[in-house]
Amino acid sequence: MLDWTDRHCRYFHRLLSRRARLYTEMLTTGAVIHGDRDRLMGFDPFEQPVALQLGGSSPDDLARTAKIAEGFGYSEINLNVGCPSDRVQNGAFGACLMLRPGLVADCVKAMKDAIALPVTVKCRIGVDDQDPERALFEITAQCVEAGADALFVHARKAWLKGLSPKENRDIPPLDYPLVHRLKRAFPDVPMAINGGLTTLAQMQEQLQIMDGVMVGRAAYHDPGLLLSVDAALFNEPARFDDAFTAVEAFLPYIERDLARGEKLSNITRHLLGLFAGLPGARSFRRRLALDAVRPGAGPEALLAAVGEVTAAMARLNGADAA
Fold first, then answer.
1. CA 37, chain centre distance (Å)
2. Beta bridge partners of residue 52, listed in sequence order
3. What SS3 class is residue 294?
4. Which long-range contacts (CB under 8 A, 24 or more apart) does 137-142 make?
5. Which of 180, 194, 105, 192 is nearest to 141 (CA)?
6. Is 240 within 8 Å of 227 (Cβ atoms)?
7. Helix (H, G, I), strand (E, B), or coil: what is residue 75?
8. Which end of the chain is more exposed for a tag (fewer CB within 10 A), N or C?
9. Helix (H) or strand (E) holding 274
């Protein structure tokens, strides 16, 4: 979720669901150790529970970074062993680590020894020519032995050679049954499944077997999906009745960050899919994308874009009544 799940995105998503656990963009150990930590790692307490996802392959660097993250107040450290981008391949981490389960275990143990927070692992079912059954079961066994608190499995292979990162999100076939077999083999290890889940019905089906589901692109491109999560999956009332009231609740945050010098477009870019499927959604996206980048743009730009949806719905309701 690089460039997607930044602090603005997470704050808005927390407005939509009290219970969903939120994850940061993947940060490399080098960025945390040598970069601007407050900018990279700072978050609003309202986002909790929020987990920091790390990319790296040095046990010492990961332990050091995890200790820094613990000081920031994160609820979990998640090691990325699934991202297939060129950046992680050049750095020999992410999905490349599927080929080195022993090193992944060393990384997990180093972090567990350094911090009191839960340490989890997000992986694929294999890479390139690996046998998924063997690769997935081996890395799981070693991570569990090293003390990993949970496993998140993207139920696709990653092809480090031949497919782009974008293609790796869709082209390799999903293998849910393999992940289900893994869960049955390790019944006491908390496991969540990831990949291809776009509806609450699909998530509920997976929860008949798995302990959790992890949803990325579906929740980002259609944030309204999160409005139903608390009621559907946690049997708790939704925070808001609809996306319109959620936007109203987001306005004080927007005003606060604009006063600190943030640009409106950096905040509202995460809302472009909010009204997906509703009349006027395309006009909302177009108007917000254009107006939010104008110098001095403020909350009124967002409200005007929302007005495109309310106007379109009023026209549709009028036509139905006629």
1. 20
2. 77
3. coil
4. 137/182, 137/185, 138/101, 139/81, 139/98, 139/101, 139/104, 140/182, 140/186, 140/189, 142/101, 142/102, 142/104, 142/105
5. 105
6. yes
7. coil
8. C
9. none
- The single residue of 83, 107, 123, 143 carrying the catalytic annotation is 83
Q: For 80, phi and psi rounded to 5 degrees?
A: -85, 115
Distances (CA, A) of 76 to 25, 95, 116, 150, 248: 13, 20, 9, 10, 30
Name, in order, each residue with C-beta under 8 angstroms of 218's C-beta and a sequence gap of 6 or more. 197, 198, 225
Question: What is the pTM (predicted TM-score) of this model?
Answer: 0.94
* Beta-ladder partners of 133: none
C-alpha of 85 from chain center: 16
CA atoms within 13 A on the CB side of 198: 5
Q: What is the pLDDT of residues 232-282, one digit of tens each?
A: 999 999 999 999 999 999 999 999 999 999 999 999 999 999 999 999 999
Helix (H, G, I), strand (E, B) or coil at 55: strand
Written as one letter, the residue type at 151 is L
In degrees, rounded to 5, the angle at the alpha carbon of residue 30 between the alpha carbons of residues 27 and 33 is 95
pLDDT in tens, 136-173: 999 999 999 999 999 999 999 998 887 777 787 778 89
**DSSP run (H or E) holding 26:** strand 22-28
Max CA separation in the chain (angstroms): 69
